[in-house]
Amino acid sequence: MRLYAISDLHLGSTENRETLSAITPRPDDWLAIAGDVGETEEHLRFALDALGGKFARLIWTPGNHELWSLPPGSPRGRARYERMVELCQARGALTPEDDYPLAAFGGRTFRVAPLFTLYDYSFRPDDVPFEQAVAWAREAGVRCADEIMLDPAPHPDRPSWCRERCDLAERRLRAACADGTPTVLINHWPLLSELVRVPRAPRFSLWCGTRRTADWPRRFRAEVVISGHLHMRGTTIVDGVRYEEVSLGYPQQWRRRIAPDALAVQVLG
Ligand SMILES: [Fe+2]
Ligand SMILES: [Fe+2]
Which long-range contacts (CB under 8 A, 24 or more apart) does 256-259 make? Predict the structure, then answer.
């Protein structure tokens, strides 16, 4: 059995929706979907239905786009996340709320941990105070739609939600990893700040993760860490741990760059 991964399907794009049918079926293998499937429940249902028949098991983690309050009147914040989790569980897809299962890829056993950690603006230079971080990005013309669209309810703000999610994941990883089995960590946002390279808008790093997770890959024995969000596909090795950015992205970002057979990235096996 192998593990494949993809993220940032952005199914609001008709071309991206059509591309799902081009993903090679691998009925014996698992597929991790690392967030930004789209903005609506319909986008998530579409992806789960289209990909569920192609792989033995799907693993889903949320991205910021799933958490946007769209369409108006739909559930917001934590209630929205829980609704997305329900949709996944109803179709047998693993979510960050499920036990972290053991799975054998390429004959080796791994613990598979889908995570949802969000961000807390801590990916910023040390001399920029937390309170001024968003204004510091705005000075350079950098804004993130999450500031308007990603409602953190019932938390007072996104960093509070991030803290709660990290506390929970850290506790669960500590318990699940006590047996020393190597892990596969899956999260929409990169776990390390040094992986965040956004040349056209470096200050966008504020919305890309949290320093809280920097030592998780080594502490929790990650063989590989899967993430998306940056729309910059690639493999990076840091301190002996492999990091796979597996975004598809918007059509202009993947068209002519990704072969149909490589839409989903083979990560293990
Ligand atoms: Fe994205
Ligand atoms: Fe994202």
Answer: 258/233
- Taking the centre of ligand 2 as the mean of its atom positions, its distance from the CA of residue 228, in whole angstroms, is 7
From CA 268, how far away is CA 245, in angstroms rounded? 14
- Pairing of the two strands 241-245 and 222-227: parallel
CATH number for position 52: 3.60.21.10
Strands (E), 34-138: 55-60, 102-105, 108-114
Closest CA to 194 of 138, 137, 245, 134: 245
Ligand 1 centre distance from Cα of residue 38 (Å): 8
d(CA 139, CA 149): 21
Number of structural domains in the chain: 1
Coil, helix or strand at residue 119: coil
> What is the distance in A from the centroid of ligand 1 to the CA of 33?
12
Ligand 1 centroid–CA 167 distance in Å is: 25
Per-residue pLDDT reduced to its tens digit, 140-158: 999 999 999 999 999 999 9
What is the span of the domain harbouring residue 217?
3-268
For 13-36, what is each residue's pLDDT tens digit? Answer: 999 999 999 999 999 999 999 999
